[in-house]
Amino acid sequence: MTLAQALADELRISASEAEELVDVEVQELTGHSGEMTYSYLFDFTDHASPRLAAKLLKQHGSLQLEVRPEFFETVQQDQADIR
Questions:
Q1: CA–CA gap between residue 44 and residue 23 (Å, rounded)
Q2: In angstroms, rounded to a whole number, what is the distance separating the alpha carbons of residues 23 and 67?
Q3: Relative to the CA of 63, which of 1, 17, 24, 52 has its CA 20 to 30 Å away?
Q4: Going by DSSP bridges, is the β-strand pair 37-43/64-67 parallel, antiparallel, or unpaired?
Q5: Per-residue pLDDT of the chain (83 residues; tens, 9 = 90+)
Q6: Are the C-beta atoms of 10 and 72 separated by less than 8 Å?
Q7: Are 67 and 47 contacting, i.e. CB atoms less than 8 angstroms apart?
Q8: 78, burial (CB in 10 Å: exposed 0-12, middle 13-18, buried 19+)
Q9: Which pLDDT score is estimated for 76?
């Protein structure tokens, strides 16, 4: 699946809405040693349109999404260039 589809599923939004979020730089969250990745953080603050930002805030209370590393297992490799 594409990153847009994975984000749409996770955020419960349409794939077309998720398309505007796919260029977000993903932050890797690691332990103190930096050797193990515990999760990834998407921050949609500067990428979501005002309408989508309002929808995400209403549904999730935040413009950030933290996902486990397994989130990227179903995303096509060319889309998941963070690994």
A1: 9
A2: 16
A3: 1
A4: antiparallel
A5: 999 999 999 999 999 999 999 999 999 999 877 788 899 999 999 999 999 999 999 999 999 999 999 999 888 755 445 44
A6: no
A7: no
A8: exposed
A9: 79
Residue 39 has which token pair? Answer: 């999760």
Residue with tokens 């500067």: 46
Name 37's Cβ contacts closer than 8 Å, sequence gap at least 6. 28, 29, 30, 69
Bridge partner list, 40 = 28, 67
Structure tokens at 44: 């949609």
Neighbours of 29 (CB within 10 A): 13
* pTM for this model (two decimals): 0.84
